[in-house]
């Protein structure tokens, strides 16, 4: 099921007032969109545009639906066309920035957020999105200032509070990070109770830990989204509870994506094609543990491919790995959907995810089915609890 995006704006039509029948249809489509019924909303938006092609509202929101369905390129195309009709909507620039960000085009995203804020400075979502780009660029102090702006205009903005906490954590400002994590948990932000408990305990603060863990486990067993799959490995030793935690995490954050349709076994290849996917093909424990493994594959029977979605580097391990594979493909700038499409086009037989539920992982690639057989290995020593991991 595609994700529901919060704060879908109710933009104003421009250029010419649409016929009342189109207005009624648009309101119907918008209501469906806000309920998460994307296919139904899309059909009505398309019908409206067939009658009035320059109707800004449905064109803009058709682009939003494209992004919600994982097609960032189509989202950019549609929202850009909408902006040509109405260049004065801050919401469309923010949504355009989000689509660019999905594509990894951070400069274009940043510029779009700036345009949104030039039109509406008291726009917390644009401040948050702009700060997110700064964080991705490792400009953490500037990012924190941006999150501060977002929170100033929207004090109970959990996304901004959590990501400000993450930025504080990267700066080793642990107390500030824990304050934000606790605040987000108090606001009921999904999974943050477990994250706060995990990092609080990692600072050797075990006060009342047993009762807090027990209460958290009760909520996990009740199916509540109170702990990430990764955090659960740090303080829950029940495999059943770890599985339940991962199950809730996947259903909420990493559900199966059927955009590319079903995948079948490919025709017999002379060599079985095995692809490994990781952000850690560099000086990193995962690489140290696997480099020789890649080198020892029987090349008379297997073709070995690397899909690297981490930042490029020139360290010695990276150089070693580049020659260890038959193909080493940089995909940092591609979306999960695009990487899955590429994998399918290369007829990968077995896709091996080396990241699992760790930081900066890309489970969305496997949610789209990159290969007929998909495996989680090594980097995350726990269950994925995902139907698309075999």
Describe the structure.
With 390 residues, the chain is α/β, with parallel strands linked by helices. It has helices at residues 20-34, 38-51, 56-68, 72-85, 90-102, 106-119, 124-136, 140-153, 158-170, 174-186, 192-202, 209-221, 229-235, 239-253, 285-295, 316-324, 336-345, 363-367, and strands at residues 272-278, 302-308, 327-330, 350-353, 373-376. The chain contains 18 helices and five strands. The chain is globular. Helix content is 56%, strand content 7%. Strands 3-2-1-4-5 form a five-stranded parallel beta sheet, with helices on one face. The two termini are 20 Å apart.
Topology:
Blueprint: H1 20-34, H2 38-51, H3 56-68, H4 72-85, H5 90-102, H6 106-119, H7 124-136, H8 140-153, H9 158-170, H10 174-186, H11 192-202, H12 209-221, H13 229-235, H14 239-253, E1 272-278, H15 285-295, E2 302-308, H16 316-324, E3 327-330, H17 336-345, E4 350-353, H18 363-367, E5 373-376
Parallel strand pairs: 1-2, 1-4, 2-3, 4-5
Helix pairs in contact: 1-2, 1-3, 2-3, 3-4, 3-5, 4-5, 5-6, 5-7, 6-7, 7-8, 8-9, 9-10, 10-11, 11-12, 13-14, 15-16
